[in-house]
Amino acid sequence: MAQKRISKDIIVHGATEMIEEMGYGNFSLHELAYRLGVKPSSLYNHMKNLEDLKKAISLCAIEQLQNVVHTAGEGKEGKEALVSIAIAIRKFAKTNPELFKTVFILSANEGGMELERLIDKPLAEFTLAPNDAKHFIRAYSAAVFGYIQLENLGYFKNATGTDASFIAMVALLVASLTPAKKVN
């Protein structure tokens, strides 16, 4: 039988697909190896251990989310971009609920999500002191990711109008911003 060729990218891709299908808590290296058509020990030629693979999965999820955010903000300015980005983050979480759970496995110090970079471009269009920008980023991130977390945990399960509530929350946040004066 010919040896199947695998790489770190193939392993991470297979793992992210498996996580979405089976759930993050049900993920196993043995099942992943079976699906990839290799022996479990072959995975360790590309990954140090399970933690190394979990970090790679988290980085993959972060990259996917950052691409979604970039696309959502493209061609939009200011408040429209901030609302569009929030909607895109929530859609990503709803479309990829198990993968989304991995986004915050790593701290920013470990290469994890850098919240400031998610909205730095649209935020630059507003008049904010450096500390106020930092506070807004924290409030925006806490509101968006907190809402998604509560929603994913089922707190809004029987509630109606969750889409409208989400949009209203983001709109209230961005309404506090003052557009920078444009120089002609």
Molecular structure report:
With 184 residues, this protein is mainly α. It has a domain at 76-175. The protein contains 9 helices and no strands. Helix 5 packs antiparallel against helix 7.
Summary?
The chain has helices at residues 8-22, 29-36, 40-43, 50-73, 78-95, 97-100, 115-123, 130-152, 162-175. With 184 residues, the protein is mainly α.
Keywords, separated by commas or semicolons:
184 residues, mainly alpha, 9 helices
**Spans of at least 5 consecutive residues with low confidence:** none
Residues in helices, as a percent range: 55-70%
What's the average pLDDT?
88
Based on Cα principal axes, name the global outline. Answer: elongated
CA-based gyration radius: 19 Å
- Treating each run of at least 4 consecutive H or I residues as one helix, how many helices? 9
Given helix and strand content, the structural type is: mainly alpha
Helix and strand topology:
Layout: H1 8-22, H2 29-36, H3 40-43, H4 50-73, H5 78-95, H6 97-100, H7 115-123, H8 130-152, H9 162-175
Helix pairs in contact: 1-4, 4-5, 5-7, 5-8, 5-9, 7-8, 8-9
